[in-house]
Design brief:
The complex is a heterodimer. In chain A, 83% of the residues lie in helices and 0% in strands. Chain A is mostly helical. Chain A starts with a helix and ends with a helix. The chains are: A mainly alpha, B mainly alpha.
Amino acid sequence: MKSTRHHLIDWAQAGRLEPGSLERAFEAAGAFPDGAAWLRFLDRLLLWLGALLIAAGVIFFFAYNWNDLGRYAKFGLVELLVVAALAVIWRLGLETLAGKVTLLAAALFVGALLALVGQTYQTGADTHELFSAWAVLILPWVLVGRFSALWIVWLGLLNAAVTFYYVVFGGLFGVLFAPDRLMWVLFGLNVVALLAWEGLASGRADDRWAIRILATASGGIATALAMFAIVDFRHAGGWGLVAWLAYIAGAYALYRRTRPDLYVLAGGVLSIIVVVTTWLTRALLTHGEAAGAFLLIGMLVIGMSAAGGWWLRRIAMELQS
Amino acid sequence: MNAASDALWARLREAGLVEGDVPPDAVHMPWYVRVMMGFAGWIGALFLMGFVGAAFAVVYKVPASGLVIGALMCGGATALFRAKPDSDFFEQFGLAVSLAGQGLMGYGLGSLFAFDVGTTALLFALVEVALFLLIPSFLHRVISAAAAGASLVVAATDWGFYHFTGAVVFAAFAWAWLNEFRLIRRGVEVRSFAYGMTLLVIGQLVMLAGARAINDAVLGHGRHAIGGAAAPWIGPIVVGIVFVVVVWRLLARQRVAPGSGPGLAALAGALVVAVVSLKAPGFGVCVAIVLLGHAHGNHVLSGLGIAALVAYWSWYYYSLEITLLEKSAVLAGAGVVLVLARLAMNARWPRAGAKGAGDA
């Protein structure tokens, strides 16, 4: 959907507006925010930044591990914060944005509480246990909150739990040198999340950003799996390429036909360019004449991206009309 | 053509700003498609540079030859862009050839001037200015504007003006966006320059952590920063002044008198941001990006500003040399102030019947 701003700028550039009248056209079209729009914007900005700063302040406070404050005082403090946040939510209601943002803050306070438990009692728990316990504990809130940002935070916790699990059990070197197992799990997790979101949210327009985050995460990992399969074929096997191909085909079917989304398609084009370039580099540059290979690959990259641009332009035109 | 553009056109016709029928709808390519194309063009350029390096070893032996081959590539790219301005293939081909040519010219200039950083950067900036003026591609112009600005920053840093570069780039950024609608015949140039400056202003914040180290280790050559003890303050003061001017100009556009309630609240908020910017100049910069984006109906810009604000704030507190306890107090305190400001704003101007514009 083309915005008012882009319509006006295009018309001005095409010479259809009088010189010097673009600002008046913006005013006449209501494209400049009025007083009420400014207040709404500042209201959200102050709410979000305020909540984030307070949550960050609370987490830093417990990270400091202040010795002058007894353990019960610390527990009391963080529990008080959780209860206070819940009281604010009770008063504001979960339908308001302020209520939802406060719920997000409460979910972050729970993380501080769990970190405090680990810090105080030296439970020997691993980092992945902290993240998975955190995700499990706040799940009921996430379910009743019906708030995209909270879901994304929750999925971030799951990703962190999985990553730290492999860091502990595979060892840091295991993750660095044989990252494919971790990547496969993260790939599966984010693809399932993306599909579940598409299935359950069924085309709600206001949380496309969340879908795009999930598509970026899962598509990025799919691309990395394919690149690993190409660069280290004997070790990784060809399954990375198979998964990538399936992902690209699925993304095309879903985001070209069922729920057109230019962002995901543009990401798909970039993914294809990167994977094909990796394959060509491996096939042509490791043996043979370098200059010719460089030129050939460079021209193919240009050709692929130009074709991709042309295709995306056609879809943009289609979506616009 | 669709219902939305028809309705918009009708509104403008009523206001007497346009005549005739609705023009055919031009395609709008969203920012992420442009970013994707730019990134792909950059990958293509790397391979083209590899080709030139492998085929003509002379480039790395005789400095002037890199300069000549690079200039020829940039010239060829310019001709392509001008001959086929609407072709997807030639735009992408021209972009990659031009980027590769710029890389070779940069290398050639650097070797020719025995890596005298200031002179090399200044000459490279002139090349970028020429490409900005000659190549009629929005994406290329954004890249050239950012590259020209970055080169000038490097040159100025080398000459000892390090402390002022951030403020000057911020002023250029603010000027470009505030004049977005004025120079209508040069709209493409102004807008691409504005986006280039936005990238540069954010890039400078990213580089902030390393900039001082680069200045001392690589660029300094023992030259002292000009301005003496006052120098570190002059830049942030200019940032604060530019920020207040931005808010002032936006109020004028909203037709809010500076002496009215909303006007005073906005200016007081701007002053607070300016004062905080004395210690953390990136704060004023990021808030200005957010405000200008919202004021111009440009969601890409305001989104970029919010992301930059969160990232800058995180980095700032991470790098601040105070204990976690003090950091926690400052962060939570600032958060409480923002929430209170929000409550005060909503109490003073209940949104249902709000007329004025507040700014903070």
